[in-house]
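---------- Forwarded message ----------

FYI, see the TRNT1 nucleotidyltransferase record below. Original note from H. follows.
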Amino acid sequence: AMRLQAPQFQALFTPGLSSVAELFEKKNYELRIAGGAVRDLLSGVTPQDIDFATTATPAEMKEMFTAAGVRLINNKGEKHGTITARLHEQNFEITTLRIDVVTDGRHAEVEFTTDWHKDAERRDLTVNSMFLGLDGTLYDFFNGYEDLKNKRIRFVGKATERIQEDYLRILRYFRFYGRIAEKPGDHEPNTLQAIKENAKGLAGISGERIWVELKKILLGNHVSHLVQLMYELDIAQYIGLPLDGNLEEFARVTKNIQNLSPKPMTVLTSLFKGKDDVTNLDLRLKISKEEKNLGLFLVKHRQELTKAPGSEPLRPYQDFLMDSREANTISKIFELLKYQGEEQLLKEMQEWTVPSFPVSGHDLRKLGVSSGKEIGTALQQLRDEWKKSGYHMDKEELLSCLKKL
């Protein structure tokens, strides 16, 4: 059997984990690292969060932790078999091995088991179905490690069965493909067939769950290929994407923004032809207000708000920002520049500090302009002069300008 000795693995053994391991060992309950953390460790990546699996039932864990004076946190996960214990300022999420008894494509009713193979069998993808003993031994029932080394994404067992247990797994397939596969188009035909036949099941999945997966797909690799595939396999319509998405523009923009860390919405908007597409996406996925506003902003301005020819390419963006009365316009402009693939202008815009208009009504009163209406008009005229100067004129220059006006 393979034994992992990587530094990322050794680094997991905090005082907290050592105490947890000791408690389980004393009681002869098996405890292993499960799922995504194993995949990360085998890839040489330090996992962000670690799930543990055990043969102990939730009741046995509670009894053991309580007897040892260990604090337990929120019991929300308990009906799924998850107990969260807090030791040495660290949370440990530990779940009892389980089998799905009934599934409806969204949720599962579970039954506890002590059979590691059975628990692995109900996981979605082979690369997510492995366990790692605390001594570094790998338990891999479905060749997940082989698949990981070969950068292959496969469902555990029969694709159709896995998908019908939870239709969201269709999107998880795409997400991990974008994270692990080396090149686009490297799919098993029967997997794609199973996805196509079950695409409609996504209609019953909540918008929030879909949006979480979709955002990760949009920021992963091969995104242009994967979204094209969503259209070919009839998935797009069930997840809020427009029926006639603009795939050419999408391919172009995903190339533009490869290294610019865009927001997911910036990538997605390139599929959209108009603001109705943003509204429909929002109806289906319940995106945040900020995401919706960004989508509407990009659809509206991507064509005409572009760089100026000549020596001041940033001026149109700066003028737009200075005229804008809305909050966070600047971050929307950053996203627009990414969308347009203007890497250099983006850097300059990020370094540009928004100047503040140097003249106030108070200055004008000192010069003897008294009526509020006149002050308003004068300030607007000076603002226009200031804008024409590229925001360079200072207070003195502007006030002498006023005398001319």
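H. also flagged this: The CA atoms of residues 79 and 154 lie 29 Å apart.
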